[in-house]
Amino acid sequence: MYQALYRKWRPKSFSDVYGQPHVTRTLQSQLESGRISHAYLFTGSRGTGKTTCAKILSKAVNCLNPIDGNPCNECEICRGIDNGSILDVIEIDAASNNGVDNIRDLREEANFTPVNAKYRVYIIDEVHMLSIGAFNALLKTLEEPPSHVIFILATTEIHKLPATILSRCQRFDFKRISPEDITARLIYVSEKENVTLTENAAALIARIADGGMRDALSLLDRCFAMGNNIDENAVSSAAGIAGTVHLFSFSEYIAKGDFTSALKLVSKLHNESCDIDSLCTELTLHFRNLMVAKTVKECDGLIVCSKDELEKIKIRASELKLSKILSCIEILEKAAANIKNAVNKKIQLEAAVIKMCAPAATVGIGEELETRISALEEKINFLSAGRPVDNTPAPEKKEEITETPASPETVTSVEPETSTHTPFETTSAEKPAETSAEQKQIVDDGPFYNWSDVLEALKKYDIPLFGILATSTAVIKNGRVIINSENPTLYDFICADTHSRELARAIYEVLGQKMKIAVSNSEKSKTATSPLEDLKNKINNFNNN
Predict the structure, then answer these.
(1) Residue 140 CB: number of other CB atoms within 10 A?
(2) What's the gap between Cα 447 and its chain centre?
C-alpha cells in the first residue's frame, strides 16, 4: 500500500528534525544527562514537528541502546513503538477524547507499570480541546505522576490551556520552519524518490507551505503524481495557484492601469480552475515582496525566491510608488475577507483588481500628502530660480485656499495694541515679502462701501462668521480693514485661523489685494458681557431688591 510522503519521511531521530534546533538540542541534552521531566508541553503551528518530536522522545526514553540522546531505531523497543506493537506508548487525540471520563480512565491506567518498556508515555495531541472538567481531573496526576509515567502534551493553541496546566509542564515552542530548511528537505526527499525537483519549484512549495513541513510534503506528493520532472508550472498547477508569471502580469497591468488585460487574466485563470482564494493570497504575497523590495536595500534574506525572480521583483517595485503598493495590499486583504463569504468569489476578486488599477480609487492619505509635498517642492524650486509662482485665488476649489493670499500664513495671530483697534498681524518669520510697485495699490481711507459685497462672498465660505458680522460695518484706514461690530464674541471668534482665513479670502475677492484685518476696540465692546454674565447680573439685582 502506498504511504504518503509526510508519513514515509517522518524523522525517526532528533538529528533528522529540520528547523527546530533549539528544541532538539535541549531534549538530547536532557536524555544524555538523565534529567528527564515527567511532563512536556510542545506548542506551535501545524506541521512544525510537535508530534514527531513527541514520538522520538517516547522512543529515546525507552531505547535499549540510545546514541547521543537519539533512539537507535534498531532495538526491539524502537521497532515496536514504530510499528505500534509496544502498548506502553499511548497516543490520545484530545479532540475526540476530551471528557472527564476519558481522563479518569487514563489516570487509573497510569498506575499500572509498563509491560515491555521502561516508561509508560502518554502523548495527548490537541490538548487544548479538553474540557474544563477534564483539565481539572488531569491536574493532580500531571503534577505528581507515578515514576514510570511521562506525559507529552501537544497543542496549536497554547492560549486555551489553563495556567495550572502550563505551570506543571516543561514548555517547548516550535517555530515555523524557515523556507530554506523546507526547500532543502524537499530536494533531499525528491532525490531519494528519484524525482527531479527544480530549486525554484521547491522554493515555491516552501512559500506556499508557510512554515509547515507536513503541508510542504503533502503538496510535493501531489506534484509527484504529475510526473518525474517537477518545475514551477507543475507546482502551480498542483496547488491551484497563478504562478509567478501570472503574478508579474497582474502587477504590470496594475502599474499601467490596464483594466481590460487584468480582468481578462482573472477570467483566464478562473476558467483554468485556479482557486480564487489561493490567487488572492498569492497576489497579496507578491505585493508584500514588492513592498519589501521597495523599502529594504538588502532584501535577499526577506524574500523567498530565485535570484532571477528577485531581480524582476526589484524592477517591478521601482515602477510603483510605495503608497500604491500599500494600497493594493489593503485592497487585497479586504477582498480576501469578502471572498470567504461571497456567493461569487470571482466577482470579489474582479472588484479588487479594478480598484487596484484605478488611480483615483487607490489614492490614500499618504499618496495625497506625497503629491502635495511634490507640488510645494516644485514651487520652492521656482522661487529659488527667480520664477514667479501663480497664487491667483480660486474660490471654487476650497482645497487651494492655502495657496491664495488669504492663507493662514497671511493672518496668523492677534496682538492687542494700545490704539482704538486690535489688528491681526503676521509674525516676523511669516511676514510676506515687500510687494512690487504695481502691487502697492493703496485703497483710499474711509468707509468700506463694498463691505456688503464682502459679507455676500463670506456667506459662501463661512456661514457662522457671516451671521456674527451681519450687522457690522467696516472702514479702511492705513491699508487695514477695521470692523465695527457690537457683537462681543467677534474678537474671540475671528481669532480662529479658519474664520480669519475665510474673511481675508472674501476681502481679497472684493478688493483684489491683500489687506490686514482689525476689530474695533470700542468702549461698548469692552464693557459688553456674555449672555451668562447678563443672567448672573439680573439674578443678583433681583436678590438685592
Answers:
(1) 11
(2) 61
Spatial distance between the Cα atoms of 218 and 6, rounded to a whole number of angstroms = 6
Least confident of 109-113, 332-336, 359-363, 468-472: 359-363
Distance CA 497, CA 510 (A): 20
Q: Does residue 114 carry a pLDDT above 50?
A: yes
Place of cell 525537483: 197
The correct answer on CATH 1.10.10.10 for the domain covering 240-362 is: no
Q: Return the amino acid letter for 219.
A: L
Q: Is the predicted pLDDT of residue 262 greater than 60, yes or no?
A: yes
* Grid-cell match 523546507, residue found: 182
Residue in 95, 86, 94, 84 with CA at minimum distance from that of residue 116: 86
Confirm whether pTM is higher than 0.85: no
Whether 212 contacts 46, CB under 8 Å: yes
Question: Which of 242, 303, 289 minimizes the C-alpha distance to 269?
Answer: 242
Q: Which residues, listed in sequence order, are joined to residue 474 by a DSSP beta bridge?
A: 483
Number of H helices, E strands in the chain: 25, 13
Rounded CA-CA distance 305/170 in Å is 37
Grid cell locating 143: 503534577
Do 521 and 486 form a contact (C-beta atoms < 8 A)? no
Task: Give CA–CA dist 31/26, Å, rounded.
Answer: 9
For residue 134, the tally of other CB atoms under 10 A from its CB is 20
Give the number of other CB atoms < 10 A from CB of residue 214.
20
CA angle 246, 251, 254 (to 5 degrees): 125
SS (H, E, C) 210-279: CCCHHHHHHHHHHHHCCCCEECHHHHHHHHCCCCHHHHHHHHHHHHHCCHHHHHHHHHHHHHCCCCHHHH
Residue type, 143: E
Per-residue pLDDT at 406: 37
Q: Which helix (H) or strand (E) holds 342?
A: none
Structural element, H or E, at residue 173 = strand 170-174
* Boundaries of every domain in the chain: 5-175, 240-362, 405-527
Q: Which of 456, 471, 448 is nearest to 518 (CA)?
A: 448
Give dist(CA 452, CA 390) in Å, integer: 28
Distance CA 219, CA 247 (A): 20
- CA dihedral defined by 241, 247, 253, 254, rounded to 10 degrees? 100
Architecture of domain 5-175: 3-Layer(aba) Sandwich (3.40)
How many other β-carbons are positioned within 10 Å of the β-carbon of residue 115? 9
Strands 446-447 and 473-477: antiparallel
291-294, Cβ contacts within 8 angstroms, sequence gap of 24 or more: 291/317, 291/322, 291/325, 291/326, 291/329, 293/317, 294/318, 294/320, 294/322, 294/325
Q: Which of 77-81, 159-163, 476-480 shows the lowest mean pLDDT across its residues?
A: 476-480
Stated as kind and residue range, the H or E segment containing 481 is strand 480-484
Whether 291 shows a pLDDT value over 90: the answer reads yes
Read off the C-alpha cell for 195.
Answer: 524525482
Q: What is the 3-state secondary structure (H, E, C) of 266-333?
A: HHHHHHCCCCHHHHHHHHHHHHHHHHHHHHCCCCHHHCCCCHHHHHHHHHHHHCCCHHHHHHHHHHHH
